[in-house]
UniProtKB/TrEMBL annotation:
<protein>
    <submittedName>
        <fullName>Cell division protein FtsK</fullName>
    </submittedName>
</protein>
<feature type="binding site">
    <location>
        <begin position="219"/>
        <end position="226"/>
    </location>
    <ligand>
        <name>ATP</name>
    </ligand>
</feature>
<feature type="domain" description="FtsK">
    <location>
        <begin position="192"/>
        <end position="383"/>
    </location>
</feature>
<dbReference type="InterPro" id="IPR027417">
    <property type="entry name" value="P-loop_NTPase"/>
</dbReference>
<dbReference type="GO" id="GO:0051301">
    <property type="term" value="P:cell division"/>
</dbReference>
<keyword id="KW-0131">Cell cycle</keyword>
<feature type="region of interest" description="Disordered">
    <location>
        <begin position="441"/>
        <end position="462"/>
    </location>
</feature>
<keyword id="KW-0067">ATP-binding</keyword>
<keyword id="KW-0547">Nucleotide-binding</keyword>
<dbReference type="InterPro" id="IPR002543">
    <property type="entry name" value="FtsK_dom"/>
</dbReference>
<keyword id="KW-0132">Cell division</keyword>
């Protein structure tokens, strides 16, 4: 049988391209059909209405537009402008990923299957490699690809057989240091469902709910984990002062992080043995609150001085779950699991911070409902913290530079779209901590005359 020494005809190649890109093919056909069937006036009116509606959405509700429409429009634009066929083909050939077809003499290159732009600074390129090419070949050429793509950081992983993902990060959207959370004037101004942490890469306030949730902050030494603790404390300062929020602190850095802020806390520990006592008492209080709510025939608590929101903060959690004495770690893991599975209803929350999120270090990792990942030392830490596939989608936490200019920068997951969003925590200085301690110390006397937390029941309920 003779070998075929010519390519498919142009019409067949065009038909194949059209089949792979139905949107680009179907849209002109639909417009042409509309003009013929409905007339140019009707078609133009419909298009103008759609454009006006989109512009109104863009201007009137930026948050939802950036969450839903923005990524789709941005992906389309970059696919057909930045990564259009000839540009992509030239890039692959320049980086030596092209290969001559021995039968036809045509230069073949890996095919760009899809472009997904999760945010203004992150593109994920899904690429179908040629037969005989490997993931290692692309990883070995990471420097060349990064330069060709003009990327500040580049991640290369296998998605499925024959498909790899190039995650391209460009620029630093946080050129300025973010100010810390402001201390509200009054406890009625505290919103426990949206505590300020910093800003996202769109320039919007980054907030997280602490009521009804457990928060995990992961980051290497010097990544800015302290800001994940002090910003929410400042944001709910007046509620702490008025006895509506009670915070227990386990500072397992020997007291270096929070020792100077002891007046803020209901209970405090700076050694594992004492920390186990604090966690045990926290669990016992949760059980007592459960019994109280049961007697009152209530399924959910309301934030008040009688049933305050209880928050347990643990810095360097690994000392309580893996790195400490085994008799302590076993008890601590069991207590934390009990608290985190039962704490939502009675209003008991856990906020923990550590450097390594592996299952060996943190067996109860999956019980944290809100997770933030700052700079890490291993590429798999992003997926361990934020969820499977988050690094492919753009959470290149191991590529964040280890310097002061990038402290506090990391990723969180949007709860609606499940996409990683780049964020930066507000920079909290020692002076900011001193201000919080000075203005919002925890009460040391009876606070029964304090007005309960002034919010609607549905917002206050855990």
């Amino acid at each position: 049988m003779a070998l075929v020494n010519r390519r498919k005809g142009m019409e067949w190649r065009a038909a194949s391209w059209m089949a792979r890109h139905p949107g680009m093919t179907g849209t002109p056909a639909a417009l042409a059909t509309s003009v013929v069937e409905l007339g140019p006036v009707t078609t133009g009116t419909v298009l103008a209405g759609v454009g006006a509606a989109g512009l109104s959405w863009y201007r009137g509700h930026p948050e939802t537009f950036d969450r839903y429409a923005g990524p789709a429009l941005r992906s389309f634009r970059r696919r057909w402008l930045r990564y259009v066929g000839r540009r992509w083909r030239g890039l692959m050939i320049d980086c030596e990923f092209g290969r001559e077809n021995r039968r036809t003499g045509h230069i073949e290159v890996p095919r760009l299957v899809r472009v997904h732009s999760a945010s203004p600074s992150i593109d994920t390129l899904y690429v179908k490699v040629l037969r005989g090419q490997s993931l290692k070949k692309f990883q070995d050429a990471a420097d060349e690809l990064s330069m060709a793509l003009r990327a500040d950081a580049l991640g290369i992983v296998k998605v499925k057989p024959g498909i790899i993902a190039l995650t391209v990060v460009r620029g630093n959207p946080f050129e300025q240091v973010i100010d810390p959370a402001e201390i509200p004037a009054d406890s009625s101004d505290v919103d426990l469902s949206a505590l300020y942490f910093g800003e996202d890469e769109y320039g919007n306030d980054w907030t997280e709910p602490i009521i009804g949730n457990h928060l995990l902050g992961v980051g290497a030494t010097g990544s800015g984990k302290g800001s994940l603790m002090w910003n929410p404390l400042r944001a709910m300062g007046p509620a702490i002062r008025d006895g509506l929020v009670r915070v227990d602190m386990c500072d397992l850095k020997g007291g270096m992080e929070a020792g100077s802020a002891r007046p803020l806390f209901n209970d405090y520990a700076d050694e594992p043995e004492r920390a186990l006592e604090v966690i045990t008492a926290f669990r016992d209080d949760m059980k007592a609150t459960q019994r109280h709510l049961k007697e009152e025939r209530l399924r959910k608590f309301r934030v008040s001085t009688e049933t305050p929101l209880r928050v347990l903060m643990i810095d360097e959690l690994a000392m309580m779950t893996a790195l400490g004495d085994s008799s302590i770690t076993r008890k601590a893991v069991k207590l934390l699991a009990e608290i985190m599975t039962q704490g939502r209803g009675p209003g008991f929350a856990v906020c923990a911070y550590l450097q390594e999120p592996t299952k060996d270090i943190l067996p109860v990792r999956d019980l944290f409902t809100r997770r933030i990942c700052l700079r890490t030392t291993a590429e798999n830490h992003a997926d361990m913290t934020l969820g499977d596939g988050m690094r492919v989608k753009g959470a290149l936490t191991d590529e964040i530079p280890a310097d002061e200019d990038h402290a506090g920068i990391g990723f969180r997951v949007d709860q609606y779209t499940r996409r990683p969003i780049r964020v930066r925590a507000g920079n909290v200085t020692d002076e900011d901590i001193d201000e919080l301690v000075r203005t919002c110390p925890a009460p040391t006397e009876d606070t029964s005359n304090v007005v309960p937390f002034n919010r609607d029941e549905d917002e206050d309920a855990a």
